[in-house]
Amino acid sequence: MAKRKYYLTATLADGYVKTIGPTATDFTHYWRIVAYLDGGRTEVFWGHTKSLTEAKRKRGATADAAAARGWESYQFEIVELVRTAG
Predict the structure, then answer these.
(1) Distance (Å, whole) CA 79 – CA 38
(2) Per DSSP, which regions of 2-84 are E strands?
(3) What pLDDT, in 10s, does the model give residues 39-73?
(4) Quick one: CA dihedral 25, 18, 14, 45, positive or negative?
(5) Residue-wise over 68-80: b if at least 16 C-beta within 10 A, else e?
């Protein structure tokens, strides 16, 4: 029998809402990187993980990426995903 699918919603501190799904995978956290580039430009990277520990590992990789890509600065955020009706 197929697993029941549902939606997952992340609400970030700045009010941005990201909905993922439908999915049957048990993702628990959403992460987002906002990279500030020269000239006032920005790039956004995001993803979802199956644990808070896995999401926190992205923070170390982000510091390496910032140095390698020459970002002026960046914001890294992790929020818990909540199941929603969709």
Answers:
(1) 27
(2) 6-11, 17-23, 29-36, 42-49, 73-80, 82-84
(3) 999 999 999 999 999 999 998 889 999 999 999 99
(4) positive
(5) eeebeebebbbbe
Question: 3-class SS at 60?
Answer: helix
Residue 17: its pLDDT value, please? Answer: 95
Residue 53 near residue 1, CB atoms below 8 Å: no
Rounded CA gap, 60 and 80, in Å?
19
Of 71, 28, 69, 23, the residue nearest 47 (C-alpha): 28
Residue type, position 84, single letter: T
Question: What order of strands is seen across the sheet that includes strand 17-23?
Answer: 17-23, 6-11, 82-84
